[in-house]
Amino acid sequence: MHIEYLREYIELAQCLNFTEAARRSCITQSALSKHLVSIEKEFGTELVARDRHSVELTQAGHALLQEALAICERWDDARRRVNKAAAIPMLRIGGLLQNPRVLWIVSSVLSSNDQGSVSITCTYNQTFSKPFIDLLRDKEVDLVFTYQDEDQEKKIGDEFVRTPIFDDPFVVVVDATHPLASQKNIHMEDLAEKTLVRLSGPYYSWGWEHIEAVCTRHGFQPKQRSVFTQPGLDYSLVDLQNDALLLSQSALTGQFFARTETHRCIPVSDEDAHFSICAVRRKDDPNAALKLFMSRIAKLSL
C-alpha cells in the first residue's frame, strides 16, 4: 500500500466529500475512488459507506483513520530523520582509539540523541605509521584524540584547534618483587633512581615525551629501557625485568595488571602526573558532523 493512499484516505475521512478530498489531494475523483477500493481490498472490509446523498465512515473506517494519522506522522518523522542524516557527512576519527575512556566518549556521542533525529556516522583510522597530527594535515582524518602538553602544542601549530577532554592519571606497574610494590601510592620523585620501561613505536612516542616532561618538572631525567611494542599488544606480556612501567589509569591493561598477583598497579599522587587527552581538529573545518560531534562532547559529564 502506498503511503499517499493513506493520506488521501485521511482527507476523505475528515471532510467526507469525494470532490473536496480529491481537490485537497491533487488527484481526480475517479483516482481517489480507485485508491479507496484498493485500501478496502487490503483490509478486507468496507471503510466508507456512501450513497448519492452522504458519505460516512464505517466503524472500521473510524479505526483506520486513527491508525492512518499515526502511520503518516511516523512516516513523516522517519523521512525527516533520514533527510537530516543524509545531510550530515561522514566523520573520520583517529588517534588514541585504544584508550578505553576515549572509546567510551566516542560511543556516548554516537549514541546521543540530544540533537533530535540527527545521527553521526563514523569511520576509524587505526594508522600508527605516522604521527596523529600528520593524519590531520594530510586530511586522512577529521579529528584525532591525542596527548596535550606545552611542547606538543608548539608542534601542532596554529592551523589546528585543540579541545581538552580529560586528564588520565599515571599509574606505575611493577613486578610484585619490586621495591615499590608495597606502596599504596608514589610520587614522581620515587622514580628518579628507577629505570622506566619506554614503549617505543609511533603510537607511543608522544606519550613518552609527556612522561619525560613530567619527570623534568620533578627534577630528573628518567632512566629508560626501550621495548618495541605494537599497538594493541597486551602490556602484561612486556617483560618488566624489575623495572617500572608508567601507564594511564584508564588503560585496559592497567586494569588487568591491577587484578594479578604477579604485578602491582600503584597510583601516582602528584597533581601533574597525568596524560592530558585532547581532541584536535583543523581550524575552520566545515564538516557538519565534526561540529555536531564536538557540541555533543561538550555536554558529556567527563
From TrEMBL:
Cite a single Pfam family from the UniProt record: HTH_1
Q: Does the keyword Membrane apply?
A: no
Its GO CC terms? protein-DNA complex
Q: Which UniProt keywords apply?
A: DNA-binding, Transcription, Transcription regulation
Write out the GO MF terms: DNA binding; DNA-binding transcription factor activity
Name listed for the protein in its UniProt record? LysR family transcriptional regulator
- Gene3D superfamilies linked to this entry: 3.40.190.290, Winged helix-like DNA-binding domain superfamily/Winged helix DNA-binding domain (1.10.10.10)
Q: Which organism is it from?
A: Eggerthella lenta
Q: Extract the PANTHER family matched here.
A: HCA OPERON TRANSCRIPTIONAL ACTIVATOR HCAR (PTHR30346:SF0), TRANSCRIPTIONAL DUAL REGULATOR HCAR-RELATED (PTHR30346)
**Which family is this protein grouped under?**
Belongs to the LysR transcriptional regulatory family.
Under the heading PROSITE patterns, the entry gives: HTH_LYSR
Against CDD domains, the record matches this protein to:
PBP2_LTTR_substrate
Q: What is the lineage of its organism?
A: Bacteria, Bacillati, Actinomycetota, Coriobacteriia, Eggerthellales
